[in-house]
Amino acid sequence: MIGLDQIREIVSSTPSKIVLLVIDGLGGLPHPETGRTELESARTPNLDRLAKEGICGMIDPVGPGITPGSAPSHLALFGYDPLKFTVGRGVLEALGIDFELKEGDVAARGNFCTIDGSGLITDRRAGRLSTERCSELCRLLDGMNIEGVAIFVSPVREHRFVVVFRGEGFLSALDDSDPQREGLPPKDVIAHSPRAEKAASIANEFIATARATLAERYPANMVLLRGFAHYPDFPKMSEVFSLKPAAIAPYPMYRGLAKVVGMEVLPTGATIGEEFATLAHHYNSYDFFFLHVKETDIAGEDGDFKRKVRVIEEVDRALPRLIDLDPAVIIVTADHSTPAVLKGHSWHPVPFLLCSKWCRPEGVAEFSERACINGVLGRFPATDVMPLALANALKLKKFGA
Fold first, then answer.
1. Which H or E run contains 276?
2. Are 251 and 379 members of one domain?
3. Per the count of CB atoms within 10 A, which of 45, 73, 135, 155 is most buried?
4. Exposure of 1 by Cβ count < 10 A (0-12 exposed, 13-18 middle, 19+ buried)?
5. What's 101's domain CATH number?
6. Residue 35 class from Cβ within 10 Å (0-12 exposed, 13-18 middle, 19+ buried)?
7. Domain contains 399
């Protein structure tokens, strides 16, 4: 891939606009009864139209065979090498709820979960308990102080919360307690270096206290922590790409990701229709929009094939509002695949389309996994998305002599 320093040298600021629509977890696998993926099962006349008028392919978020988390896969779409630019999930969740992180703070993403009498995890999401219930439980855990380290616990959404550890010398070089599988016990937090042993001990004491406090709070009778991290210092999109970028994302983590790369996060409603209305309302104020749809990923993780199909169709019905704005570049893709038949993220490449007036017609008839793999772009890394977007928006000068 061409690096950010090289892009910075050839990019130009122009009035043309780019819209990046990320349908989270869009990629799927065939349903055993029909042989069609969720995207192939959905009725998508507007996505199909864009595919016919644009160029298509399949992208690898991190690399072939690698199952990506949401943070690295989105950073790759934004043009940042996910192997070089890393950020913990806790920081993203904290930023997403506007928690004011201070220098030295370490944030971790938390799940309320369910364990059985043997201490094995039976539900990593505690039945996706309500945000209201999450807030109540967070108040029970907030405000601890262990060995001089202040601990803040704040709700995010549904079963998710943030833990922030604030104290001198608290290091982030810690392993997760979340095994990310059911049927296993929560793991102990392990230090990656001798200097982080005290931090690991404090994190484990917090988890033990939380378990005792929540013992009678079934189904949310335990916590899982992952993504311990300090706030990272990334180059901003405005500096690298000469863009004025904005994000439209109801879910906190994706607002946090947008903030890390310097996007302005726009207030928006929770529905797909409200997100597209927010885009139209602010369209004249920015030249790059990241529009994120989460519900496809949730349906995939829940193993609900039909619901994922319905969400894809809802996005398609909303698309004319974006198309009518006539941006220079429309991109539709995903951060990763979340096949309903797997009930989780997977390593499969994801469909990609780019539509601009400068596209060469290629003969793809629909937006689907089977169609996109035959597109002119073939299979390529997600880090190439931003250069393609900038080029088709006429924002890149010639490279070299």
1. helix 272-282
2. yes
3. 73
4. middle
5. 3.30.70
6. exposed
7. no
Q: pTM for this structure?
A: 0.86
Number of domains comprising the chain: 2
> Structural domain of residue 103, as residue ranges?
92-229
Would you say residue 401 lies in a domain? no
pLDDT tens for the chain, 401 residues: list them: 688 999 999 999 999 999 999 999 999 999 999 999 999 999 999 999 999 999 999 999 999 999 999 999 999 999 999 999 988 888 988 998 999 899 899 999 999 999 999 999 999 999 989 999 999 999 999 999 999 999 999 999 899 999 999 998 898 999 999 998 999 999 999 999 999 999 999 999 999 999 999 999 999 999 999 999 998 889 999 999 999 999 999 998 899 999 999 999 999 999 999 999 999 999 999 999 999 999 999 999 999 999 999 999 999 999 999 999 999 999 999 999 999 999 999 999 999 999 999 998 788 999 999 999 999 999 999 999 999 999 999 999 999 87
